[in-house]
Design a protein that fits this description.
7 strands; two-stranded parallel sheet; 16 helices; 2 domains
Length: 415
C-alpha cells in the first residue's frame, strides 16, 4: 500500500486520502466489505458492461478510483478532520477490513467474479490453464487507486454517495429517501410496524402496519409543507442541512410523533367506517357510479395510501404556521371528535370515491391532484378556525371544491 495524497473535504467535514494498492491487496478485503454499506444497491451492473470491463481489466486497463470510507468505530470521539495527521489509521482500516464502499461496488463485483473465473480455469488442463495463469498474474498485479474518506458520518456518507452517482438513473427518489431515513425502520413505538416497499402489493388491513415509503412521503411533506414528492436535488439539499447526528435524532422524535398521530387518525376512521366495503359493481346505475377502479373500498384503503399521508403532512405543517399553539399533539386530542354532519360515513366514502373518479378522468397530474385534495381535506378537518372543523363529510366537499378551484384544468369538473 502506498499513501499518495490527502485533502480536506469541508462539505462533509472529512479527510480524503488517495491510496494506491494492488488488485491482490484489494481482493483480500473485497469479500468482507462489499455488503457493509447499508445504503448501497444490490448488484445491478449491466452484463454487457461487465463483459467489457472484464476484458479491459484482463489486458491491464487503468480503472477509475474506487471510493471507500473508514467505519466510524475506528475513530475516537475527539477526532477532528482539521487536525488529521496520522495515516496509520488507513493501514489499520485495511488490516481490520473496517471500510465501506461508497462508489465502486459494481466494479468490485466484476473484480471478484473475474478472480473466481480465472482460478477455475487454472484447475483445468490444456492451453486454457497456461493462459489463465498468465491472466491471473497480470490481473492481481494491476494497480488500483482508492480514495478513502476519514471521519465521515452516516448522513454525509449518503450525501457523498449521491453526488458521486449523480449521473445514474437506477436509483429512484423514493429509494433515496428510504436510504436517508433508513434507521427509522428499526424504531419500535406504540405497536406500529414500518415495513419495506411491498412492490405495490395489496394494502395491509392491519391499522398498525404502514409501508415505509408511504410514511416517508407523508413525513417529508410535513417537514417541507408541500404535499408533492421531492426531486433528487431537493433530497441533496435536505442532507446538506442535516449536518450532524444531533439533527437526525431530533427528526427521529418528530418522526415518531408524526406516525403516532396519523395512526390515531387511522384508528378513528376504522372505528367510524366500521365494516364499510365499497364494491364497484353495486354502484352501477346509481349517482355514485364510477368509470375507473375504486380508489378505496374501506377506510384503510383510502387513508393508508401515500397520497393521503402526504396530504395530511402538508396540511398539518401549514396549520402549524398559521394557528397559534397548533401541533401534532393538538391534532391527536381532536381526532376523537371527528364526526359526520349531513350524511353518514358510507355515503361520505361513496362521495369521496366519486370525487377521485372524476379527478382521474380529467386530471393532467393525477397523483399531485389527489395529494392536493387530501391536503385540502385535512386542512378543513383539523383547522380550529375553519367552517367545517372535525366534520368529515363537509371537509370532503370542501376538498373537492378547493381542488376544482385551484387546478385550472379541473375548473369545469362536474359535481
Amino acid at each position: 500500500m502506498k499513501i499518495l495524497t490527502q485533502s480536506i473535504d469541508h462539505r462533509i467535514q472529512a479527510i480524503n486520502v488517495m491510496v494506491e494498492i494492488s488488485m491482490k491487496e484489494y481482493l483480500e478485503i473485497a469479500e468482507s466489505i462489499i455488503n457493509e454499506n447499508e445504503f448501497q444497491r444490490k448488484k445491478v451492473i449491466n452484463s454487457q458492461i461487465s463483459k467489457i470491463l472484464r476484458e479491459d481489466i484482463t489486458i491491464g486497463c487503468s480503472v477509475p478510483p474506487l471510493v471507500l470510507a473508514l467505519k466510524q468505530d475506528l475513530l475516537t470521539t475527539e477526532f477532528n478532520y482539521l487536525n488529521y495527521l496520522d495515516n496509520s489509521i488507513i493501514e489499520k482500516a485495511f488490516d481490520e477490513k473496517k471500510l465501506l464502499i461508497l462508489d465502486g461496488k459494481q466494479r468490485t463485483h466484476v473484480f471478484l467474479k473475474l478472480h473466481k473465473d480465472l482460478k477455475e480455469l487454472i484447475r483445468k488442463d490444456g492451453s486454457e490453464r497456461v493462459k489463465a495463469e498468465n491472466d491471473l498474474k497480470s490481473f492481481l498485479n494491476n494497480t488500483l487507486r482508492i480514495e478513502v474518506y476519514v471521519g465521515i458520518n452516516k448522513l454525509n456518507i449518503l450525501y457523498r454517495m449521491l453526488t458521486l452517482n449523480s449521473g445514474q438513473t437506477n436509483m429512484s427518489t423514493r429509494h433515496l429517501m428510504e436510504m436517508l431515513y433508513l434507521d427509522y425502520l428499526d424504531i419500535d413505538f406504540d405497536g406500529i410496524r414500518l415495513v419495506p416497499d411491498k412492490n405495490d402489493e395489496v394494502i395491509s388491513k392491519d391499522p398498525s402496519e404502514f409501508i415505509f415509503k408511504d410514511i416517508l412521503d407523508g413525513f417529508t411533506s410535513y417537514l417541507d409543507k408541500d404535499e408533492n414528492t421531492l426531486e433528487r436535488s431537493e433530497i441533496l439539499d435536505n442532507i446538506k442541512s442535516a449536518n450532524n447526528i444531533k439533527q437526525e435524532v431530533s427528526d427521529k422524535n418528530i418522526f415518531e410523533n408524526f406516525v403516532i398521530t396519523y395512526k390515531s387518525f387511522i384508528d378513528k376512521m376504522v372505528e367510524n367506517f366500521q365494516d364499510i366495503s365499497i364494491v364497484k359493481e353495486e354502484l352501477i346505475d346509481t349517482e355514485y357510479e364510477i368509470k375507473g377502479p375504486v380508489f378505496g373500498k374501506s377506510a384503510i384503503e383510502i387513508f393508508k395510501r401515500s397520497q393521503a399521508i402526504s396530504g395530511f403532512g402538508a396540511a398539518i405543517a401549514e396549520l402549524k404556521d398559521i394557528r397559534d399553539n397548533f401541533d401534532l399533539e393538538k391534532v391527536r386530542d381532536s381526532i376523537k371528535k371527528i364526526h359526520c354532519k349531513d350524511i353518514d360515513y358510507l355515503t361520505s366514502a361513496l362521495t369521496l370515491n366519486k370525487h377521485f373518479d372524476n379527478i382521474r378522468d380529467k386530471s393532467k397530474k393525477i397523483g399531485n391532484d389527489q395529494r392536493f385534495y387530501f391536503k385540502s381535506f385535512f386542512r378543513s378537518l383539523f383547522d380550529p378556525e375553519a367552517s367545517y372543523t372535525l366534520c368529515f363529510d363537509k371537509s370532503i366537499e370542501y376538498a373537492y371544491k378547493k381542488t376544482r378551484e385551484e387546478k385550472s384544468y379541473l375548473k369545469d369538473l362536474y359535481n
